[in-house]
Amino acid sequence: MDNHQITVTSPLLPDLDELNEMLKDIWNSKWVTNNGKYHKQLEKELADYLKVPYVCLFTNGTLPLITALQALRVIGEVITTPYSFVATSHSLWWNGIKPVFVDIDPNNCGLDPGKIEAAITPKTTAIMPVHCYGKPCDVEGIQEVADKYGLKVIYDAAHAFGVEINGKSILEYGDMSTLSFHATKVYNTLEGGALIVKNEKMKQRIDYLKNFGFSGETEVVAPGINGKVDEVRAAYGILNLRQVGKAIEARHQVAIRYREGLCGVEGISFFDDAPGVKHNYSYFPIFIDAEKYGMTRDELYFKIRKQNVLGRRYFYPLISTFSTYRGLESSKQENLPVAHRVAEQVICLPMHHELSDGDVGRILKLIVK
Ligand code: T4K
Q1: pLDDT one-digit tens code per residue, 294-319
Q2: How far does the centroid of ligand 1 lie from the alpha carbon of residue 182, in Å?
Q3: What is the CA(78)–ligand 1 centre distance, in A?
Q4: Cα(184) to centroid(ligand 1), Å
């Protein structure tokens, strides 16, 4: 029996010959970084593809979070979710900001806007929600609370490349949004990321901040960082952008097959497509109700692992349980009952553009009893 390893994801890679042609060009030009021509081209092409005004490229998806907080001068306390990759809260910590965890809505695994108000204090200056798995948060509900209390909203949209609500990019909501272009993401530049901003003035400010704060050869206007992307990764990104639509469609087909296979399985739930939303199928989380399914999440997780199917428990354990954060008042388990439950139930099944029908069949056979 075919028992090859099936990983949770697999990177979308550009054609090597095409990349080689671009590498030759870079080698000839000897311009390899610092806002080169491929860097400029990728920022422009991404803005068009994503239907957003301005894209600022970064070397990963964590630096744009850190930089957005700097650019908007966020201080004090920020309301955020414990149900995410740890980079979300770390970006606050690196800015000397206290994360205040609020529980999630089980229907989208994003911040529950109904629970935000109770966590606001005089020190609260912003909200940092996450479009977890690329599923849109309740963006209207979150904005309503933000407007009422004069708070900034920075979306960690690391998973939400290309997601739209009624034809509008999800990256347009809030004050700023960030993306990750890590190898494990729908669209990747090996390592990489971006900050999406709304006007040219802010784009300029971010460009200063990601280049040590330099506004010219001899002037430094802010304590900036080095977040610049080199020409090799920009070229790679240009080529990947040409095939990402096809890759998302392949993922869509995998999601359809999973849903067909898992429909009606007692004790297993999953997300359907939401009306009006263009999804990117970046992850396929399933949630195990141990009592009804007759097996705990971990029992199923290790059972499929033993058969070389490497799902992942994103996002277990919760950020609020890590040593850096567990002493915070908002980290108490009774404050986050939904997040704790979901983190105990989730397995992200393998999801990528190269999964074959046979792979999906093999995975389903292990889960459907
Ligand atoms: N905000 C959110 C909500 C995020 O999810 C993330 C990152 C960030 C912010 C920060 O963005 P970055 O600074 O990372 O750009 C991965 C990624 O490293 C991380 O980017 C991602 N989120 C997180 C959810 O997952 P791991 O530790 O699960 O990756 P790893 O190395 O175990 O890889 C998983 C599987 O992917 C492997 O079993 C096989 C496949 N893979 C992976 C790599 C790296 C490949 O086939 N090739 C590869 O090169 O963290």
Answers
A1: 999 999 999 999 999 999 999 999 99
A2: 6
A3: 25
A4: 5
| pLDDT of 206 above 90 | yes
Answer whether residue 126 shows pLDDT above 70: yes
Atom of ligand 1 nearest to the CA of 65: 9
- Calculate how far, in angstroms, residue 190's C-alpha sits from the geometric centre of ligand 1: 10
Q: Name the CATH code of domain 16-241 (choices 3.30.70.260, 3.40.1390.30, 3.40.50.2000, 3.40.640.10).
A: 3.40.640.10
Q: Considering only CA atoms, which residue is closest to atom 23 of ligand 1?
A: 85
Residue 2 confidence (pLDDT): 78
One-letter amino acid at 89 equals S
Which of 1.25.40.10, 3.40.1620.10, 1.10.1040.10, 3.90.1150.10 is the CATH number of 244-367?
3.90.1150.10
Domain borders along the chain are 16-241, 244-367
What's the pTM value of the predicted model, to 2 decimals?
Answer: 0.98
- What is the arithmetic mean of pLDDT over 8-15? 98
SS3 284: strand
Please count the other Cβ atoms lying within 10 Å of the Cβ belonging to residue 277.
Answer: 15
Asked if 347 and 297 touch (Cβ cutoff 8 Å), the reply is: yes
Please name the residue whose Cα sits nearest to atom 29 of ligand 1: 184
Pocket around ligand 1 at a 6 A CB cut-off:
7-11, 60-62, 84-85, 87-88, 130, 156, 158-159, 180, 182-184, 193, 310, 312, 314
Query: At 7, phi and psi to the nearest 5?
Result: -90, 165
pLDDT in tens, 148-172: 999 999 999 999 999 999 999 999 9
Give the mean pLDDT of 116-145: 98
Nearest CA to ligand 1 atom 41: 10
115 exposure class (CB count in 10 Å sphere: 0-12, 13-18, 19+): middle
Which backbone phi and psi does 83 adopt, to 5 degrees?
-100, 80
